[in-house]
Amino acid sequence: MRTAAAVFLRVPEKGTVKTRLSEGLDETYVLTLYRGFVGDLLEGLHRVPDKVLFYWPPEKRSRLENWLGKGFLFAPQRGDDLGEKMANAFEELFEKGFDAVLLMGSDIPELDSRIVSAAAELLESVDAVIGPASDGGFYLMGLRRHAFSREIFQQIPWSTGEVLTRTLKTMEVLSVVYRQLPVLDDIDTPEDFSRLKKRVEQGGNIGRRTRKNIETHAGNTALWLSGG
Fold first, then answer.
1. Fewer C-beta within 10 Å: the chain N or C terminus?
2. pLDDT above 90 (res 226)
3. Where are the domains of the chain?
4. DSSP secondary structure string, 25-53?
5. 140-165 mean pLDDT
6. Rounded to an integer, what distance in angstroms lies between the CA atom of residue 74 and that of residue 13?
7. Is residue 103 pLDDT above 60, yes or no?
8. Are 163 and 189 in contact (CB under 8 A)?
9. How distant, in Å, are the alpha carbons of 10, 111, 168 from that of 153?
10. Which of 152, 173, 9, 6 lies closest to 84, judged by CA?
């Protein structure tokens, strides 16, 4: 089975990535964090030979290539909302001949190669896999070609705590057989970052870039805008 790993990401520029995180952390540090998140994630995809980066905004492709190099397939995100963008990404890759696609976000620093490998293995026996996020959304969706339907991504209240529940309900209506992965945290807010930092300090698993960035943060109160 030919499987692609697809990642949704933004071109890293100060003030445009993880904007809610920047409400409590220095913007330059947030940009460094985001670069670390992406770098660690891509490093964790080494077991999947085909890696496709769906980037935004479309006109900034050259900046992404200069950062990450030419070892990836690059494609712009297309659509009016997240659901349409995801559906278009799956459809585009299935049209290219892939049998299965793992689509994931770039702000889940605890998403590592073990979870990605487990997702790929599960897709050999089920129609879909989904990685629940602690905020009620999901950080990864994997689909086999025969199970793909644009309906999975329609009528979903994106950016709410109902995303996962509504998505799974749609899959059940469509008779899509799915399995769930471990629950992980999106890192969207300063509070999310504080919890991540605490888990790392207690020995939690994390990529080397993010670990280094968190160690840099330790004791440096200047990186907080207020409190922290």
1. N
2. no
3. 3-221
4. B-HHHHHHHHHHHHHHHHHTTTT-SEEEE
5. 97
6. 18
7. yes
8. no
9. 21, 22, 11
10. 152
For residue 5, the model assigns a pLDDT of: 97
- Arithmetic mean of pLDDT, 190-210: 92
CA neighbor of 123 nearest in space, from 143, 97, 98, 138: 143
The pLDDT value recorded for residue 43 is 93
Least confident of 142-146, 186-190, 219-223: 219-223
Q: How far is CA 134 from CA 17, 108, 165, in A?
A: 20, 11, 12
CATH superfamily, region 3-221:
Spore Coat Polysaccharide Biosynthesis Protein SpsA; Chain A (3.90.550.10)
Two structure tokens written together for 95? 């049209």
Distance CA 16, CA 12 (A): 7
Q: Are 7 and 52 in contact (CB under 8 A)?
A: yes
Q: Which of 185, 179, 181 is nearest to 197 (CA)?
A: 185
Q: How many angstroms separate the CA atoms of 158 and 142, rounded? A: 18
